[in-house]
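Example pasted here:
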Amino acid sequence: MMESGTQVTCRYAGTDLEGTYITDRDGKAVIKLNSGYNIGVDPSCLTVVAPPETTEAAKEMVVTQDSSLPQLSILSTGGTIASRVDYRTGAVTSQFTADDILRAIPGLADIAQFRAEVLANIFSENMTPAIWQTLATHICDEIKNGAEGVLVTHGTDTLGYSAAAVSFMLDTPVPVIFVGSQRSADRPSSDNVMNGLASAAAATSDLGEVAVVMHESTNDDTCAIHRGTRVRKMHSSRRDAFQSFGMKPIGTVGYPSLDVTLTRDAVRRRPDTEPVLAATLEEKVGLATFYPGMNPEVLDAFAGYRGLVVSGTGLGHTSAPMIAGLKSLIDAGTVVVMTTQCLNGRVCDRVYDTGRDLLAAGVVEGEEMLPEVAYVKLMWVLGQTTDTEEAARLMATPLRGEFGGCSYNGF
């Protein structure tokens, strides 16, 4: 039997194809083509090109670091940017260590010197508030220990939540850059190298806040720098899946030049300032999306919660039958914040009767905050105060650029 990882050629539909042998299944040889796709072929058509790579030799490869370059830290939480193909199954698995990332992304060592640590090795759907707290604490420690910027490798599905959470928990004087990739390193269309290099360039720039760096378009020419409290993943697989809302991106990184351009809105680096950490989160906070015909009894699930964010329609509305249930939660001590399902624009509950009734019930307007950002912010706010009036005041106050100024309409 051929060994998994063997480089082979095979003839399929009259065409010679190159790829990597994975396994035999149901009488067919499963091959991962160089295009990234898997096919099943007759084993007799295979020709061996090269044996599997020696993983031990790859692990021993040393990346030389230049001590004259800026000091950055990489904190790895897993995700596609830190993944490789498992040739036993053909699946992409998150199993790189942080040091592997330096080997996997040629050119990083030309931008900065790095120290690296694995905080978690998970797909981002398994992210938790406890890991957010650990992440914010470690970022703070790295900055206090001399890191001039921090990279956080993260799966893309919940990357926006984590970037917002760290934005509120940590007042950083240096760049903290969240980065991921939509396509794994074994695919020719992978975005991991460009995103990795661009994020390192952003981490050495004059930026002084939490941001997300990902492809700006489907081309390999620019990465966008998105504020950590204004960004959302908008496509399941496109490389330019991440977009800013309520404002334009706060900067760009050219490729392959790696030139960084920041807008006037971007917070600048404050080199003589210490980071300030406030990592307490209240986990009894919910996020509910209103829909037509929603039964008010759904709100019973949030009884006893300290906070609830509602993603309402339009200017921030629910049906009239929902208002009594929300008022009951508010009277019992739950802080209820209204956001909008619209991706652009802000909540204004003073226009229609339903909105005015919601305000009379004690609902707090969430301005132009994305629902998930309001959810994370409310967890953080309720971790800092037990006073519901103070919590409402903080939710209505822009703290990390999560809202404020004129709304960018995105069109």
